[in-house]
Amino acid sequence: MRDLLAFVEIRNLVRHYSGNFKLYNISLELERGETLTLMGPSGSGKTSLLRNVCGLDIPDSGRITVGGRDITYLPTTKRNIGLIFQDLAIFPHMKVYDNIAYGLRAKNVHERDIEDRVEELSGMLGIKSLLERFPGQISGGQRQRVALARSVAPSPSVLLLDEPMSSLDMQLRSSVRSEIKSFAKKMELTMIYVTHDHNEGLYMADKTGIMYDGSIERIAPPQDLFTHPGTERTAKFFGYNVVTADGRKVAFYPSDFKVAAEGPEMSGKIVSIGFEGEHDRAHVMMDSGDLVQLEFPPGKYIGKLAPGDRIGITITRTEDLTG
């Protein structure tokens, strides 16, 4: 065994569920103050892994340690793990102040210390003016901040977040995730953050894991994982096109090409094309049989290309795929 342990370590975790699904041989490390994002399609096991970390589920084998303490079989209340659910689970009958204070009161913290902690967190998150309101009287983004304050108030060793922004619209998600990341760094929070949105997962992460079928395929820095996806399913998850070229599978991003009037590397027939704001997007059935998406500068080809037209392209950057 190594002399120095990471702050959070999961080693060879296995957990069987009904329906033949299982978490299999999960291992990861996380240093204090780091954020690990777990991404992957629905049903890949992301939430199940969080349930094992916080004690709602117990592994069949393997080990979970936090700060050198083995918590694998401890009850949830003894783990000092914070959890923000997808639905936030804010108590609707309690004012914002009481929601934030809830975990501290459960630990019998002195009321004066609770007041100081609530004031500190509500000030940092910009919700001090909301403390006397009920959750039904505030916006979705404000409820998100309340859930964060409530989870952080008891000073958890690790904070787990399970799709915490799934109910927010796109513009609000962008704003709130920025606030959460900034807050997490100020508070030096250690977080495991689950999402199926790869943009959100990459933005929030110090390191990123990709999960399929109950296993973690790879953990890497976010830029490395995105730039070098490695496998076909990870490339497709990040929005790459996967094509067969010279007898091998390669991936290229929808913007990594140029239109080639002569001597194109690939050619095909446009299936659909439309304006998306930042770019035009075309779906093209290549002669190889691969359906790909291409992103053009906005407005450049709308009205000039139509479904049924042929187009030739030269790919400007590809990534080899190992499987």
Provide an overview of this structure.
The protein is an alpha+beta fold and 323 residues long. It folds into two domains: 8-227, 3-Layer(aba) Sandwich (Rossmann fold), CATH 3.40.50.300; 241-320, OB fold (Dihydrolipoamide Acetyltransferase, E2P). 26% of the residues lie in helices and 31% in strands. The protein has eight helices and 18 strands. It has helices at 46-54, 96-106, 111-124, 140-152, 170-187, 198-204, 222-227, 232-237; strands spanning 8-16, 22-30, 35-39, 61-66, 69-70, 81-84, 158-162, 191-194, 207-212, 215-220, 241-245, 248-252, 257-259, 266-275, 280-286, 291-296, 310-315, 319-320. The strands form four sheets. Strands 6-7-8-3-9-10 form a six-stranded mixed sheet, sandwiched between helices. Strands 13-17-14-15-16 form a five-stranded antiparallel sheet, with no helix packed on it. α2 (96-106) crosses α3 and α4 (140-152) runs parallel beside α5. The model has no long low-confidence stretch (mean pLDDT 91).
In summary, what is this structure?
The longest helix is centred in the middle third of the chain and has 18 residues, at 170-187. Strands 6-7-8-3-9-10 form a six-stranded mixed sheet, with helices on both faces.
Distance, first to last CA? 32 Å
Strand order of the largest sheet: 6-7-8-3-9-10
Question: What's the helical proportion of residues?
Answer: 25-40%
The number of distinct β-strands equals: 18
Mean pLDDT across all residues, rounded? 91
The CATH superfamily of the largest domain is identified as P-loop containing nucleotide triphosphate hydrolases
Q: How many domains make up the coordinates?
A: 2
Question: What CATH first level of the largest domain would be assigned?
Answer: Alpha Beta
Global geometry: globular
Report strand %. 25-35%
What Rg, in angstroms, do the CA atoms define? Answer: 23 Å
Low-confidence stretches: none
**Secondary-structure class:** alpha+beta
CATH fold category name of the largest domain: Rossmann fold
What's the number of helices? Answer: 8
The CATH architecture of the largest domain would be 3-Layer(aba) Sandwich
